[in-house]
Amino acid sequence: MTFPQFAFKNITRNLRAYLAFYLSSSFAVMIFFMFAMFIFHPALETGYMNNIAKKGMVFAEWIIFVFSILFVLYSVSAFLKTRKKEFGILTIQGASPKQLRLLITLENVFIGVASIVTGIVGGTLLAKLFFTAGSYIVEMEPLQLYFPLKALGITIAVFLLLFVFISQFTLFIIHSEEVISLLKGSVKPKKEPKPSIPFSIIGILFLGAGFGLALFADINISSAVIITVCTVIGTYLFYSQLSVWMLKLLKRNKKFYRKGTNLLWISDLMYRVKDNARLFFIVSIVSAVAFTATGTLTTYKSMFTTKDLLYEMEFLSYVNNKDEKEQLAYIQSQFNQKEIDYEQSKIKMIETDQGSSNSPVLVVSYKDGVEILPELKSTKLEKGEGVYFGQTERGDHTILQDNTTDLQLSNQQISIKLQSIEQPILFLDDVLVVDENTFKLLKQSNELVTFYGFQFANSKENLDISQRIHDRIVGETYNPDARYFSKSIEYYQTVQLPSLSLFIGLFIAIIFFLAAGSFLYFRLFTDLYEERKKYKSLAKIGLSEKEMVKSASIQMANLFFLPFLLAIVETGFALQVLQREGGFSNVFQSGVITMLGFLGLQVLYFITIRFSYIKNLKEYVYLNKN
Highest mean pLDDT: which of 35-49, 73-87, 494-508, 529-543? Predict the structure, then answer.
C-alpha cells in the first residue's frame, strides 16, 4: 500500500467525521466562486452602480476568505485532537515527523480537492440563479453567463493553498507533544465547572441594563454604545457563568434532577456549555447582528418615497451662481451623449422660510404652478391664498398641522391662507403656490431663484450620468450657489446600496450559520468516543435505547438552539429601538420573516446532524454487543 492510498483509506474509514467538514468547505468554495464570477463579469467593467457592486463583492470575498481560514484551521485542529492516539501508535511503529506531515497534508489535499470540485460544480449550476437574484435585489441589468476563467483560477489556487498551509501549521500541535501524551489521546479528566456567582449576577445586571435602556432610553451615540457594551458583556457572562449556574441550580432540585434522564443531560450539558461558551457567544452576537441588519435593510427597500415627485432631476440656481449657463449646458450634453429624450422645465421662484419652523419653502406663482401641475387649473386662488405641497413633519419636528389654515412667511408681513396641504412635488424644498398679486408683492423684497426640472424615462438606469452631474454642480464640498437632486442617486443611496449590503450580508450570514453548525458537529464527534463508552456502560446497567436517544437529543437541542434563542431576544430589543427611534413601521415584520428563515435552516441542520449522531451511538451501544 502506497502512502497516498493509506491517506485515502484514512479518509474513507472516518467518512462520517469528515462529512461536515467536506460539505461546509464545499459550500464556502461555492459561495467564493460565485462571488468571484460576479466580480470578474464583463458587464461590470463600466457603470457607476456596477463599480460599487463590484467593490462590495470584493469586500465579501475577503470576508469569506478570512472566515475560510478560521474555519479550516478549527476543523483541522479538531480532527488532529481526535486522532492523537492514532498518531502516537504510528510514531511508536516508526513513522517519522516527515511521514506524519505527508499523511496529514495528503488527507487535507484530498478533502480540499473534493471540496473545490464540488463547490465549483455547485457554483456553476447555481450561477444563473445567483446572477438573477443579485440583479433583481440590487436592481441592475440582468447578468448573462460567461466562461469564468479568472474566477476558476483564483478559487482553485486560493483554496488549494489554504488547505495545504493550514495542515502544515496545525502539525506544530502534534510535534510539541510527547508520544505518551499522544497515546492518551483527547481523554483527559475534567473538573466539574464552577460558576462564579458574583460574575453571574453581573451578567444579569448587564443584560438587564442593555435591554432596559433599549426599551426606555433616548437613543443617541453614547447610549447606543452603552447598550451595545452592556449586551455584549452580558451575553458572554451568560454563557460562561450564568448558564452554568442555572444548570447547577437545577442539580440542587433533587426531585427534578433525578427524574428520568434529567441527571444525564444536565450533568453533561454543564461541561458542554462551559467548553463552548466562546462559540455560543460569537454565534449569538453575530446572529443578532445578522437578524437586525437583514430586517432593517429589507425595511429600507420598501421606504423609497420619491416616486410621486414631478421630476427625475432637479437643479436650483441662486442669483450668485455665475456658472449656471455652463452647468445647464453640461446637463444637456450628458443627456445628448446617451441620446436620452428629456423634457426641461424652467421656473422662476422665491425661496423663503416659514415663520413658525424656519423650514425653507419655494414660492411659485399660480401661472407657473399650473404649467408644472395642470390639475391646479381646477383651483382658484384669491389674493393671499395658496396651496402647500410638502411634508407636515420632518423627523420629530412639526412643520405644519393638518388643520393649519394660515402660513406666516419669515421676514414678511404676509400671512397665506392655505386652501389645502398636498403631497410633496419637489425634493429640494416644499412648494407654496400663491396667486399672482401675492407673488409680485413677495418679489419686491426677495431675489428670484431659477429652478430647472428634467423629466425622462428610466432614471434608475442612468445613475452614472446623475453622479457626474452631481459632481460637476455640487462637487465634493457644499456649493452655496446651487443645489441638485436626482431620483437615481436618492434611489441608489436609500435602496440599492442597502439592497447590495443585504445581498452580500445574507450569504455571509448563511455561511456563518452553516459553520456554526459544523463547529458543533465537530465538537460532538470529538467527544463521541467518550460518549459511546459512557452510554455503553449505562446500557449494561439498564439504560434503554429510548432513554439514550432522549438524553442525547436534549443535549444537542440545547447546544444548537440556546444561542439562537438568545439572538432572537437581542434582535427583538434592537428592532424595538429602530421602530421607536427610526420610524420603521414594519421593521418587526421584516425581522420576524428573517428569523424564521434562519430558524428553518438551523432546524434542518439540527435534524441532519442529530440523525447521524444518534445512528452512530445506536450502532455502537446496542447493535455492537461485544
Answer: 529-543
Total Cβ atoms within 10 A of residue 150: 12
Tell me, yes or no, if the pTM score tops 0.70.
no
Q: Which residues are within 8 A (CB) of 393 and not within 5 positions of it... i.e. 6 or more apart?
A: 399
423 with 389: CB under 8 angstroms? Answer: yes
Q: Which amino acid is at 66?
A: V
Tell me the three-class secondary structure of 20-57, residue by residue.
Answer: HHHHHHHHHHHHHHHHHHHHCCHHHHCCHHHHHHHHHH
CB 430 within 8 A of CB 409: no
Nearest to 491 by CA among 466, 468, 454: 466
Partners of 360 in the β-ladder: 353
Highest mean pLDDT, choosing among 283-287, 336-340, 350-354, 409-413? 336-340
Give CA–CA dist 395/277, Å, rounded: 42
Q: Which of 549, 551, 557 is nearest to 615 (CA)?
A: 549
260 sits in which H/E element:
none
Cα distance between residue 584 and residue 498, in whole Å: 15
Question: Which 3 state secondary structure label does DSSP give 118?
Answer: helix
- Count other Cβ atoms within 10 Å, centred on residue 480: 9
Contacts of residue 84, Cβ cutoff 8 Å, sequence gap at least 6: 174, 177, 181, 182, 183, 184, 185, 186
Strands 393-394, 406-408: parallel, antiparallel or unpaired by DSSP?
unpaired
**Between these two residues, 325 and 221, which has the higher pLDDT value?**
325
Count of Cβ atoms closer than 10 Å to residue 230 Cβ: 20
Q: Could you tell me whether strands 430-434 and 360-365 are parallel, antiparallel, or unpaired per DSSP bridges?
A: parallel
Distance between CA 485 and CA 493 in Å, rounded? 12
Which contacts of 130-138 are long-range, i.e. CB under 8 A and separated by 24 or more positions?
130/34, 130/37, 130/38, 131/37, 131/38, 131/41, 133/503, 134/38, 134/53, 134/503, 137/499, 137/500, 137/502, 137/503, 138/49, 138/53, 138/496, 138/499, 138/500, 138/503
Query: For residue 570, what is its C-alpha cell?
Result: 437581542
379 vs 616: CA distance, rounded Å: 81
CB atoms within 10 A of CB 413: 8
Query: Is residue 289 classed as helix, strand or coil in its secondary structure?
Result: helix
Give the cell for residue 105: 497534508
Q: What is the largest CA-CA distance in the chain?
A: 107
Return the C-alpha cell found at 360.
425653507
Residue 548, Cβ neighbours under 10 Å: how many?
23
The confidence score (pLDDT) of residue 335 equals 92
Report the 10 Å Cβ neighbour count for 241.
Answer: 24
Higher pLDDT, 58 or 581: 58
Residue 391 to residue 421: CA distance in whole angstroms: 9
The reported pLDDT for the residue numbered 538 is: 81
Per-residue cell: 190? 475534567
